[in-house]
Amino acid sequence: MPGDCGRAPDSDALSRRDSDALSRRDSLCRLRHGRDTAGDRDTLWDTDRATLWDKATLPGLARERERSPPVLCPPQDLYTAPDSCEGRCGEPFSAGDACHCHRGCDTECNCCEDHERHCGHEGFSRSRDSISGQELLQLSEQLYGLDHNKARPGDIVLNPQHLAGPDETGDKQDLSPQPLYKFVNEELFSKPTYASFIKLLDNYQRATGREEEVTAEELQEQDRFLQEVMRTELMEKLFVFLQGKNRYSSQQEFLQDLKEIWFGLYSRGDGERDSSGFEHVFSGEVKKGKVSGFHNWIRFYLLEKQGVVNYFSHNFNGPWDTYPDVLGLQFSWDGFYKEVGSAFIGSSPEFEFGLYTLCFLARPGRACHLSLGGHPLSVQTYPWTKSTSASGRSFIATAYVMSP
């Protein structure tokens, strides 16, 4: 709940390495420039409602924040903010970032510790390779227009029913007697990206702390899904953009990276390889008696149809009058509760997969501000920092669309 944000973060939420790195950076900068950098961060977290707001993005919230001081409440087990300039050189200043990579950050005492290494004259992450806010807005609109496999008007009929207020989302009360989905045209699911996506959903044990056993057949299903999404114009567009930013030299390299960051296994429990980005985001998990992740409309529909998911209410309905749309919702999954989830509605698997990938690569650990059909929208991603893949890549810890 919001009131919990005043408590100290759990010891494993912020690694000592990361906090020490930021402290060293601030101390060195104060010594060099005779300034105090305390208060650089101006961010309000509300993790239970899966939102991040800053004054630069949602000015309408500024008045409310002036009445109550900002609080920092990092999500448990997730890295709260990146401390690297890799791929960010020349990026515009954003008050929500833990450290910065814009020109002038050195004199302002707020550069990331590796700013000189990445952004110096010989740095790998040159300014022209960074992804600007304007480029994210333009590319997201292009990807939105290339979602040829999305649901059409009439393919989905929703019954949102009760609109929950902020004081109702934690009540665990079923305020909507009918299912969320009145109708879905299941012919959508015969399309190659949908069919290969759905085959992946039963490959996981939802309880964290239980080792995932990946069979040869499941590995083939992962490869099939990646091959199918890469055949789409949407994912081809994303690859060409990232290649132009020197992130990947070939489509095969991109494909291998997608497999590592999304399907690579890591431990959310006591050392068991019990989780992956794909499982958490699209299939959903249960941790400490609560639903964790589970941000996909197809998964929700299929489980609701089976009677396994019970829709309670919604707290946000997006402004789109066509698909994809966005819904913030409350539900139970076999008795385990999700206080506030968020999901695109009616999008193709490749659209979500591509958009989340873009934001993970461009704005890991931060709000990724996009535009879809002329409406602003933000996606939040986090890298898993307790372990990495064999090649040293960070896994995706979570990714979700942010709902006010």
Automatic annotation (TrEMBL):
PANTHER family: PLACENTAL PROTEIN 11-RELATED, URIDYLATE-SPECIFIC ENDORIBONUCLEASE
E.C. code: 4.6.1.-
Domain SMB stretches: 81-123
Catalytic reaction annotation: ribonucleotidyl-uridine-RNA = a 5'-end dephospho-uridine-RNA + a 3'-end 2',3'-cyclophospho-ribonucleotide-RNA
Oligomer and partners: Monomer.
Ranges that cross the membrane: none
Listed Gene3D superfamilies: 4.10.410.20
Subcellular location: Secreted
Origin species: Cyanoderma ruficeps (rufous-capped babbler)
Location of the region described as Disordered in the Swiss-Prot/TrEMBL record: 1-23
Protein family membership: Belongs to the ENDOU family.
Annotated InterPro entries: ENDOU, EndoU-like, EndoU_C, Somatomedin_B-like_dom_sf, Somatomedin_B_dom
Main location: secreted
Highest rank taxon of the organism: Eukaryota
Family annotation (Pfam families): Somatomedin_B, XendoU
Key words of the record: Disulfide bond, Endonuclease, Hydrolase, Lyase, Manganese, Metal-binding, Nuclease, RNA-binding, Secreted, Signal
Biased composition (Basic and acidic residues): 7-23
Cofactor names: Mn(2+)
Residues covered by the EndoU domain: 132-404
SMART domains cross-referenced by the UniProt entry: SO
Molecular function terms from GO: hydrolase activity; lyase activity; metal ion binding; RNA binding; RNA endonuclease activity
Record-level GO cellular component terms: extracellular region
Protein name: Uridylate-specific endoribonuclease
CDD domains named in the record: XendoU (cd21159)
